[in-house]
Design brief:
Chain A: GO terms for molecular function: DNA binding; DNA-binding transcription factor activity. Chain A: InterPro entries: TBP, TBP_archaea, TBP_CS, TBP_dom_sf. Chain A: Belongs to the TBP family. Chain A: Pfam families: TBP. The complex is a heterodimer. Chain A contains four helices and ten strands; from the N terminus they run βαββββαβαββββα. By secondary structure, chain A is an alpha+beta fold. Chain A folds into two domains: about 90 residues, TATA-Binding Protein (2-Layer Sandwich), CATH 3.30.310.10; about 70 residues, TATA-Binding Protein (2-Layer Sandwich). The longest helix of chain A has 17 residues. By secondary structure, chain B is an all-alpha fold. Chain B is built from ten helices and no strands. In chain B, helix 1 runs antiparallel to helix 2. The chains are: A alpha+beta, B mainly alpha. At the A-B interface, helix 3 of A face helix 5 of B. Chain A binds a DNA duplex through strand 1, strand 4, strand 5, strand 6 and strand 9.
Chain lengths: ~190, ~200
DNA sequence: GCTTTAAAAAGTAACGT
DNA sequence: ACGTTACTTTTCAAAGC
């Protein structure tokens, strides 16, 4: 059975962690090749890993935000690289810092074009934001799982706000069911 | 106790002044947009409801007033684009859109998506186009919307393309630039929507 | 609320050629 | 009239203004 759920692709994973140690970002900016640090602009130092491709925001408190990774494994790999780089610089890093996934962005394809006008009314104007003058996607806030889904006329969708890998799958099954019940799924 | 009394009066006066300012701003912007008095009244009601439900806290009075007017135009079936509303407001378009979404949600306005057909009479008359062109543009919008071409597209661009196509079909040709100017969209957008609509109509 | 980072979706806009 | 780049929307953490 190949359905919309099989078309789900994780596009971005955001996670947070901490090394349990305060950092001197000025010194770190000098010691870490490729680091971007503009304290006037933003308090975090930006460091990008190449493989896996990800970007980390490193803060004075030792807390770190990792974003841009394509999977949870990639988040762990990217942060592992960063932890090792810090240890190389003689900065004490906790043995296994706890990594918390904060947000997962996925895309999927429902396989049919969507009439967004009919969908806005069918799904309930109170739960829908559809302002094509400002953005071509219909914004649907789902309570369970608690995610936000962007639906497009092409049938392509974006699921964001989930913290678990299977939130996207559950959400896609749910939205397909709701659209189908309205008779709006081609 | 006297101080408390004075503060109440001060707060009440400040509130009155703010309300008066908001209502006069709605009036000023409505005049500039050329919307009828009934729409200004609807906008005033929306503003007062937002005020009563404490939706203005953390937002600018002008932003809420502008959004109330934008919402009122839609509710009354004579929408103005965010661009048009932003032109007569001192609030940036982005804030108007954000504030509109907020008050619309909180007040449960439940306004349907803007229908491109609602822009046809105003745009067409600004271009001195006949009743016949308007009817044709309306037909083009209906036919292409039924074929699913409207999803995700800007209502103003969709209306502009239909008017351009109708002006050609009725031998009252307007250039893409002329139509683009009144609808405040680019010629590129008109061209793109026009091509799809002509195909939907079975021409080509 | 803002600042920064990443990513997808599709439409619109503004460049330069 | 191309092509490219960039902006719109959503989500989330971080520290500080």
């Amino acid at each position: 059975m190949s359905g919309p759920a099989d078309s789900i692709e994780i596009q971005n994973v955001v996670a947070s962690t901490g090394i349990g140690q305060e950092l001197d970002l000025e010194a770190l900016a000098d010691d870490l090749p490729g680091a971007d640090f503009n304290p006037d602009n933003f308090p975090g130092l930006v460091y990008r890993t190449q493989d896996p491709k990800a970007a980390a925001l490193i803060f004075r408190s030792g807390k770190i935000v990792c974003t841009g990774a394509k999977s949870i494994d990639d988040v762990h790999d990217a942060l592992g690289i960063i932890f090792d780089k810090l240890r190389e610089l003689k900065i004490p890093v906790d043995d296994e810092p706890e990594i918390t996934v904060q947000n997962i962005v996925s895309s999927a394809d429902l396989g049919h074009n969507l009439n967004l006008n009919a969908l806005a009314i069918g799904l309930g104007l109170e739960d829908v934001e559809y302002e094509p003058e400002q953005f071509p996607g219909l914004v649907y806030r789902m309570d369970e799982p608690k995610v936000v889904i962007l639906l497009f006329g092409s049938g392509k969708i974006v699921i964001t706000g989930g913290k678990r890998t299977d939130d996207a799958e559950t959400a896609v099954e749910e939205i397909v069911e709701r659209i189908d019940a309205l008779g709006l799924l081609g | 106790r006297l101080r408390k009394w004075q503060e109440r009066i001060r707060t009440k006066d400040a509130g009155e002044r703010n309300l008066q300012f908001a209502l006069s701003e709605i009036d000023r912007m409505a005049s500039a947009l050329g919307v009828p008095r009934s729409v200004r009244e609807v906008a005033s009601v929306i503003y007062r409801r937002a005020l009563n439900e404490d939706l203005i806290r953390g937002r600018s009075i002008e932003g809420v007033a502008t959004s109330a007017l934008y919402a009122a135009c839609r509710q009354e079936g004579i929408p103005r684009s965010l661009d048009e509303v932003a032109e007569v407001s001192r609030v940036p378009q982005k804030e108007i859109g954000r504030t509109y979404r907020y008050i619309s949600q909180e007040l449960g306005l439940e306004l349907k998506p803007v229908d491109p057909k609602q822009f046809v009479p105003r745009f067409a008359s600004a271009l001195d186009l006949s009743e016949e062109v308007q009817a044709k543009a309306t037909e083009i919008i209906d036919v292409s919307a039924e074929q699913g071409l409207l999803s995700g597209k800007s209502p103003t661009g969709f209306a502009a393309a239909a008017i351009y196509a109708a002006s050609l079909l009725c031998n009252e040709k307007k250039t893409q630039r002329e139509v683009a100017d009144v609808a405040q969209v680019t010629e590129v957008t008109i061209r793109n929507r026009y091509q799809e609509q002509i195909e939907a109509m079975g021409f080509r």
